[in-house]
User: Fold ATP-dependent RNA helicase DeaD from Microbacterium luteolum.
Amino acid sequence: MLTDAPEDSPATPGFEELGITGPVLKAIKDLGYETPSPIQAATIPTLLSGRDVVGQAQTGTGKTAAFALPVLERLDVSQKIPQALVLAPTRELALQVCEAFESYASKMKGVHVLPVYGGQGYGVQLSALRRGVHVIVGTPGRIMDHLAKGTLDLSELKYLVLDEADEMLKMGFAEDVEQILAQTPSEKQVALFSATMPPQIRRLAQKYLSDPEEISIKSKTATGTNITQRYLVVSYAQKVDALTRILEVENFDGMIVFVRTKNETETLAEKLRARGYSATAINGDVAQVQRERSVNQLKDGKLDILVATDVAARGLDVERISHVINFDIPTDTESYVHRIGRTGRAGRTGDAISFITPRERYLLKHIEKATRQQPTQMQLPTTDDVNTTRLARFDDAITAALGDTARVEKFRDVISHYVRNHDVPEADVAAALAIVSQGDTPLLLDPAEDRLAKAVEADNRPPREGGARGTRDTREPREPRTERRGRGDYTAYRIEVGRRHRVEPRQIVGALANEGGLGRDDFGVINIRPDFSTVELPANLSPTVLEKLRDTRISGRLIEIKPDRGPGARRSDTREGGYERRDRDERPPRGDREDKPFRKPRHKS
Ligand code: AMP
Assistant:
């Protein structure tokens, strides 16, 4: 039964109640956001009312939407002079914020968001500026360059956001930021976000913001000591494979896997089912009756894994839940405490495992503070761990089948007949039958082929020190660069998203890289057509990777990837817009993910 436990569920207003309407509301619903995060709930109404804001918030809290939604809500699309400027410390963050703006604006017509950062040629930026943009997201240095050259008109600017202000100052941008603040219209609205509030930031806020509302999200503290908390540092692209390994070796009974969005509940549940697990999605869109049915199935052991959003799992009380997995870390510690409290019910012990991407490491301190426990770091189970478990399960399956004496008796005659007629040792016949039962899936993983371990190891390398401009980009583990491919090594694929769906090359690279575990050098020419696009990928792409790519959605649409049979399919030189390869901490792994493991069926349904 789903009940709203009072300790867990203060009535949170929805996005509508915060003042978000029309196409912006539609876009966030489509993205699968169910409820505003605390920073959003506090910031959105204030910004919509026109007041300046100083927000203490970090990456992962949902702060981007907290400032982007109010900007988009009030944007005048007919005016193609920059109305909003977001300053971000690094190129990575600028691109990330840009992408967020684009996704929140996906249901608005003709909104142009431009990233402006150092290292990129001026040409692209200048022609985009000439065509007209509404929102600019840039690093302070390059914005200053444009202002000095007179190529950026900020005379109509209405909204200015300083994102990760403390980082910008640490990176030596203080002067640039102040100059930009001084050179923009005085009546603009300013929002400043910073993870920390050192005196320099306070001074900046006092000087350039007018009567700002200060918003910081305080987290409640409380959690049971019967819950063991562990975490694994793993980047986004490896999460599904890492989860599969954990599921193989971890002795679990019932499990809830938490993700951030409704859409992700569906896609992850589907992936887990494809790997042989009994998993189902629950989210705010799933009808109450269906949710209760899934929860009852979990209770009865007919279902092992629920993939859920916070809203769907509110107050859920099932004794059988031995494990909670935070596939995505929640946007606030309160949700974390609530989530892990779904296990360890009725005096039992429970296990909570959180996936933390390298950029999210800092959250551990917050979790520790909120739960008054230090989560321990876990290692990715090795191929040996997995193989030992698989062999044990294999043995168990034989033992269980031998227990069915009546059927064993019948087959014994058949086997004896075979042994007599073919003169083959019984052990060989048993091995042959094991091949039949196993199908094409190898029983054991090959440690020499353990790409997942290498990728996770890279995620766990200690961050490098650095303080100069741009070092943020190098703090994350990098994928070793490989030689560029020759043109003949690519095959063109067609995907069913095009200009009409407002897709950009960057999104295509990001989505395919994440889903298929592709590296940056795996992409050739991308050609965006009105109704579809073509993308060149390695000619020797394995069927497993293609299978994974088939499930990919871009701008909410299933891409239905297939080899391009259109005219000029092999070569497409009319590259559109020249895609940027995006460096991201959540960098995809090279090579395939693991095969579906051998697994004793856990239940009948
Ligand atoms: P940010 O702190 O802005 O970097 O956001 C962290 C992540 O949370 C991003 O992947 C967002 O897409 C996601 N996110 C932001 N707001 C919400 C929300 N209200 N519900 C679910 N996910 C969200």
In short: Residues 384-438 form one domain. The first strand starts at residue 53 and ends at 56.
